[in-house]
Amino acid sequence: MIDHTIASERLLQECATVENFLESPNEDAFAEVFNIFTPQLISFFRARGCEPSLSEDLAQDVSLILYRKADQLRDRTLFRAWLFKVARSSLCRHYGKKSREVGTIDLEKVSDSLVTSVSVSAATHAFEFQHWMSFLDSREALTLRFIEEWKYHEIAAAKAIPIGTVQWRVFNAKKKLVPHLRRRQGADRRAA
Fold first, then answer.
1. More confidently predicted of 146 and 110
2. Helix 52-69 and helix 79-102, axial crossing angle in degrees, nearest 10
3. Is this structure's pTM higher than 0.85?
4. In angstroms, rounded to a whole number, what is the distance separating the alpha carbons of residues 131 and 48?
């Protein structure tokens, strides 16, 4: 019962602090809101797998958005929900930006390395892969998915296309590969 009373008092204090900040958004009122919500935001980000330093950075970003855009809040009773929606959006933006940064590869280099491997032996898997990929129009999606081992959402973010489009391209490219795989499988059986 004592924990319930303490939690209720803390919630009332939190609501009063938020109301004070929303009524007169000055630096002192913001500092009080910052002190209350920053640990909660850090915990929010940590619970979603972020490193401590990243969690602190994202919490500061959310606090900056709070300071700049608190006057745009339509329903003050939904402050907490709004704040954590901003936090979630900030985390999504971070991962989107991260996947775009990581998502850059030079397909010409990949192609050149495959051509180099072809000069060694025309019976290698690299040669077969290049041969199959040469007639596929979705080869970039296949390369990212199966060579680079990216997830569909990472490819979609990197190419700025919907995830369904990525899935469709990979599916159709795999359909085009099936006859070639069956021919190869038959050749392997005859050789054995």
1. 146
2. 130
3. no
4. 42
